[in-house]
Design goal:
alpha/beta; single chain; Nucleotidyltransferase, domain 5; globular; 5-stranded mixed sheet; 2 domains
């Protein structure tokens, strides 16, 4: 009997699904917007995910087996069986896995989306060949995960790698998690744009700040230089703590070339070693890495 794999990446703005055949070839891939807003947001998300999966299952021969894995922006509390630490806040405190299993009438695997990312990059991406890989997602937020020998390391509380909510500036902005000065408030796209607004009184998207910096704009240079310094401080501290064999960056900010040049230099300044050699790598699987990882953790 052949086994097909379905992977779902449930993000804040889009939901992506893939179908992988027994030969590891992608047969189907689709994206839809994540339902947002209103009192029915949670229910709408559940039905959007289940409908995507059921529609994809129609492409699989009935005689063959299928596993289903879903990456979410949070984790499932093992005692309460509800979502915790989700930046898609309508999921928090909800029995998302159980509700989906009722709709699908079958068991599914659920894992943190950053863990899915680092698993995929370790198995078939930029982290191949490295033993301990730290995967960081830099976008509107900051996520992280750890892979050791191609297996996710979750930690005692299932939060291993959640570096985005480590406070490096107690007097900084308040994060949605309740703390102040989290890494996410410093080096996410959202956090950097907020820094620009607070300093100069104008809302400028992160991508525009980067472009203005490259064009020599003084205000954007001030904000971007702080972003690079905060990146170095955060990643240097990370290296000092777990000393990974490689770091792989994902998310929209992974396309910023300066992270692999100026950012790497700043990391060397802050890490507790005189000559840091840790490879800091751009992902190879693009923004679909999470959905590949989800397929690997399916049940």
């Amino acid at each position: 009997m052949k086994t097909y794999k379905i992977g779902v990446d449930m993000g804040g703005t889009k939901i992506e699904i893939i179908l992988v055949d027994p030969q590891k070839q992608v047969l189907h891939k689709k994206r839809i917007p994540t339902p947002r807003g209103g009192p029915s947001e949670y229910t709408d998300i559940c039905h959007a995910v289940s409908d995507l999966i059921l529609d994809t299952c129609k492409q699989i021969p009935q005689s063959d087996e299928t596993t289903i894995g879903i990456g979410i922006p949070g984790t499932i509390n093992p005692q309460k069986q509800v979502v915790q630490n989700a930046n898609t806040t309508s999921l928090s405190g909800r029995p998302f896995q159980k509700d989906l299993e009722k709709l699908l009438k079958r068991p599914i695997g659920i894992e943190n989306d950053a863990n899915c990312f680092v698993l995929a990059e370790s198995i078939q991406g930029a982290g191949m060949g490295y033993e301990l890989v730290f995967g960081m997602i830099l976008g509107s937020g900051c996520g992280g995960g750890i892979s050791i020998n191609g297996r996710i390391y979750q930690g005692r509380h299932l939060i291993a790698g959640e570096w985005g909510h480590f406070s490096i500036d107690p007097s900084g902005y308040r994060c949605w998690c309740g703390n102040r000065g989290c890494i996410e408030t410093k080096i996410s796209g959202t956090g950097t744009s907020r820094h620009y607004f607070e300093k100069f009184g104008k809302k400028v998207p992160f991508e525009e700040i980067v472009q203005r910096y490259r064009n020599g704009d003084a205000k954007s240079t001030t904000v971007f230089s702080q972003f690079i310094d905060d990146f170095g401080r955060a990643v240097g501290g990370l290296i000092s703590i777990i000393d990974p064999d490689a770091i792989v960056i994902g998310g929209g900010l992974s396309n910023i070339d300066e992270l692999y040049e100026l950012g790497r230099e700043r990391v060397r300044r802050y890490a507790f070693h005189e000559s840091v050699q840790t490879p800091i790598l751009k992902n190879k699987l693009g923004d679909s890495a999470g959905v590949y990882g989800a397929a690997w953790i399916g049940k």
